[in-house]
Write a structure and sequence with these properties.
The structure is a homodimer.
Chain A lengths: L8 H16 L6 H12 L4 E2 H8 L3 H13 L3 E5 L6 E5 L5 H22 L4 H29 L3
Antiparallel strand pairs in A: 1-3, 2-3
Helix pairs in contact in A: 1-2, 2-4, 5-6
Chain B binds a DNA duplex through helix 4.
Chain lengths: ~150, ~150
Amino acid sequence: MPNIRNKEPQQIRHRFIQGMADLLVPLGVPQTAARLYGYLLLSDAPVSLDRIVADLEISKSTASVAAHLLEMYTLVRRSGQRGTRRALFEPSDDYSGMINAQKRSLERLAALIKEGARSSSSRKTRERLRTMAEFYLANRDAMESAQREWSARK
Amino acid sequence: MPNIRNKEPQQIRHRFIQGMADLLVPLGVPQTAARLYGYLLLSDAPVSLDRIVADLEISKSTASVAAHLLEMYTLVRRSGQRGTRRALFEPSDDYSGMINAQKRSLERLAALIKEGARSSSSRKTRERLRTMAEFYLANRDAMESAQREWSARK
DNA sequence: TAGTATATTCGGGATATGCCGAATATAAGA
DNA sequence: TCTTATATTCGGCATATCCCGAATATACTA
């Protein structure tokens, strides 16, 4: 073991990747896609499908599907190369993909609840639903301004 | 049809409930629990398990499990009654359950990524990870202050 | 303490999801 | 146009999830 600081880098990588899966799977991201995302975050350069297949020990079809899914989420960018069909993947430089998904969820939730409020019989229920909707919208707006500030940061 | 405004209230209720399911299922909430939540949001008073069973046309065991799950999420409150074992369920008056879950997700994501940054070899990757973590934390903080303002609101 | 009303747990079956490898499609170069 | 390198689609299998109904547990009353 050449360096005491490099204690099992493989293992640390793997823990990171699995941790990402443990966080993203409950949010509805399939296990393999979540692991791929963790893997790409740790990669120092864009990675080919074949490399992914080797490193993550999954089939190529699975890798292809997972990469495509991450692209849909805008979490990952695909870059072609001229002269070959090979595609390379890397994390998107726009980190807001997941945040935007949360924002959209809150918006739709608020819209649905407001709609429900309109067609609700009891006054109490109507009030409750309106309040909820506003609460969710307030949180969405907070995220939105946070993002604006972030973009405008030094 | 006694009232032109009451156009198929059953159907509207059902659409609301299903809409809630369509929104929550992608976030990892089981279909039945999501529908139950929608149902409770529209209810004007706390509801018993047997009533749920009748209205939602699900088995009692399923209703029990779904209600318990919603309690875990703190989306729903159970209130006992003295003199009987019967439990009643209603939406929690604290609407922050889902928001808090999102906040926790962001926190843990940021923590994991920071950890990954520390054990990352390339400078570029380290920077990327640090930036990401801060971005997620900024959003979490934004939600947190939004909630504080909300609690302090008129 | 027995009896009743209610809630919960649990095993089994149905359904959905995710992965693989083979077959197919697509792009590039000869 | 043919060949090669690469990516994608698809059918089938393995696994996980979810719901039901029966069995069990629990709280309450008498």
